[in-house]
Amino acid sequence: MNIGKDKAGHGALQLTAWATFAVLGWGIAFAAPMSAYAQSLSPDQNLDDSLPASASPADPTTTSAGGAQPVQPTNAASASASNSDSPPNMRLRLDGVDPTTTGSTLDNDLRRVNLPEPTVDGLKARQYPDRADAQGIPLGTFTLRPSVNQSINVERDRTGSTKDNRTFLQTDLRSTLTSDWDRHALTVTGEGVWQKNLSGTSEEKPTINLNADLRLDLPADTTAHLTAGYQFYREDTSDPNAIAGASKQSAVNQFTTGLSLERDFGLLRGTTALALTRTVYSDAVLSDGTKVTLSDRDQTAGTWRGRIGYELSPAIIPFVEVNLGRAIYDQTRDSNGYARSNQSYGGKGGVEFDLGEKFRGELGFGYQHTQFDDSRLASVDSPTIDGNLAWSPQRGTDISIGLSTTVQPSTTAGLSGYTAYQLTSTVSHQLRDDLTAKVTGGTIWRDYPSNGGASDETEYDTAFGLTWGINRYLDLTSNIGYQLTTRKAGDDTHQLQAGVGLTVKR
Predict the structure, then answer these.
(1) CA angle at residue 477 from 435 to 431, to 5 degrees?
(2) 256, 226 Cβ separation under 8 angstroms
(3) Given this model, what pLDDT does residue 95 score?
(4) CA-to-CA dists, residue 449 to 326, 407, 410, angstroms
(5) What segments bear the compositional bias annotation Polar residues (predicted)?
(6) Sheet with strand 291-292: strands edge to edge
(7) Which of 389, 367, 391 is nearest to 379 (CA)?
(8) Residue 61 near residue 70, CB atoms below 8 Å
(9) Which range among 22-26, 134-138, 306-310, 324-328 shows the weakest confidence by mean pLDDT?
């Protein structure tokens, strides 16, 4: 009995050993050619695109190395369980292929500092080159997105007992040119407004705004920005420096350029920036045709600022910032005999916060001092508050808020200038896939020095607009807005404007 049991156990042991060797042999024979094939792929190949059809694991005609049994389709659940036992992949490196991975697992986009430039609506512009459903015009390595809006508007102005109405055509041109480079980035934006009065005598208000930003990705976690811009606008009649009774206010031309460097020192973030602004004023025209020369307001201003931030976490970075400025007028003294060239310095402290695409911005509080060359002009000293907020509480809803403090020089004899505190806000909500509503609001408080003899004034404005997407290239727009300027001394100004238009875009 014992002998029979020994023989039976020995036979079972032999059978188990033969089965084990058969399974191991099949696995080694199958894995060896697959491993060699994967290692031979180039980094820009995809494994799924390169496998021959006869090598598919689900092909029932494929046999093992022994040729005895067909290979059965792989079970997805068992494959997932076996992969979960393998060690996690190391971090992919941008400067070469990770030795722990094969070339087939790397994507071309991982080697880029910038992701490919997307289309406006997210469609793949180059996948179907013959289709006309992708927005944007490709220009080599750039993408141009132009739009033109033509509208008809009515405007009602009232200052005290004086009323002025007009009906006018307005053409808005907007365009964005963006690069699609592996490194660095160039963005050029342009906006222009042209107006033509159909009735009424109110002044037409054309504007032009051009800006370019070249971002350079330098070594050692350093980023540089080279900027340039041009702005043209006509002073509003409600502006404190506007010429009273003028039929055409002065046209203002501004040229700007700047350079900034940002460096990441680990937990510390450093920024230094230099900006130059050249401002030129044209003549104003009175109601009787007399021209008033305003060349004594032409000036060149330069500012420098430096910022140091400390990373408490990737989402919260407190900072401190200092700034220095100098403005030099072309003429040493203006038409009233005052030397208005000035120098300024200030500082602020605040915090940057970045919680992803849903919530980001910064807020800072500080103090600014502006001293004029003419001793008869009092210095302007004021606390400052600056910041911006971008919040998207839900898909299709975007909220933005901006705060800014600026010191504006005056043209009134004996008055140095004033501090302008501005608040702007915008709420955009997508009511339907093809209908978007936008509400804007803001206020400007102009705070004059108490010893200057001028009274403070506050400006409020609000507007509501609807945009209906007729199709991919046409939008129907409508808007209505109201602006109120209140003055402690003098009449208040009311302005109501409404219009409807059509936008053509690509």
Answers:
(1) 15
(2) no
(3) 37
(4) 21, 11, 11
(5) 59-74
(6) 246-248, 284-286, 291-292
(7) 367
(8) yes
(9) 22-26
Tell me if 327 sits within 8 A of 339, measured CB to CB: no
d(C-alpha 189, C-alpha 229), whole Å:
9
Rounded to the nearest angstrom, the gap between the alpha carbon of residue 318 and the centroid of all alpha carbons in its chain is 22
8 A C-beta contact, residue 463 and residue 424: no
What is the number of other CB atoms lying within 10 angstroms of the CB of residue 107? 11
DSSP secondary structure of 43-102: TT--HHHHS-GGG-TT-TT-B-TTSSSBPPPPPHHHHHHHHHTSPPPPPPPTTS--TTS-
Query: For residue 452, which phi and psi values (nearest 5 degrees)?
Result: -90, -15
110 pLDDT band, cuts 50/70/90, is very low
Cα-Cα-Cα-Cα dihedral sign, residues 305, 225, 352, 301: positive
Instruction: Yes or no: say if 417 and 410 are a contact pair by the CB < 8 Å rule.
Output: yes
What is d(CA 35, CA 27) in angstroms, rounded to the nearest whole number? Answer: 12
Distance (Å) of CA 166 to CA 157, 193, 241, 445, 478: 9, 17, 24, 28, 18
Q: Using CA atoms, how far apart are residues 465 and 93, in angstroms rounded to an integer?
A: 48
Of 131, 193, 176, 142, the closest CA to residue 472 belongs to 131
CA distance 114 to 181: 7
pLDDT tens track for 50-96:
333 333 334 434 444 344 444 344 443 333 333 334 333 333 333 33
Contact yes or no for 243/249 (Cβ under 8 A): yes
Phi, psi (deg, nearest 5) at residue 435: -135, 120
Q: Please provide the DSSP assignment of 279-311 as one string.
A: EEE--EEETTS-EE--GGG-EEEEEEEEEEEE-
pLDDT higher than threshold 60 for residue 24:
no
pLDDT for the residue 302: 97
Is pLDDT at 13 greater than 80 in this prediction?
no
Which candidate, 403, 486, 391, places its Cα nearest to that of 446?
Answer: 486
Query: Which residue do the tokens 């201003």 mark?
Result: 301
At the topology level, CATH places domain 137-505 in Maltoporin; Chain A (2.40.170)
Report domain extents, the chain: 137-505
End-to-end CA distance of the chain: 93
What is the DSSP code (8-state) at residue 378?
P
- 175, 145 contact by CB (below 8 A): yes
Which long-range contacts (C-beta less than 8 Å, at least 24 apart) are formed by 66-69?
Answer: 66/22, 66/25, 66/26, 66/29, 69/26
Whether residue 105 is predicted with pLDDT greater than 60 in this model: the reply is no
219-266 per-position pLDDT tens digit: 988 999 999 999 999 998 878 888 887 888 999 999 999 999 999 998
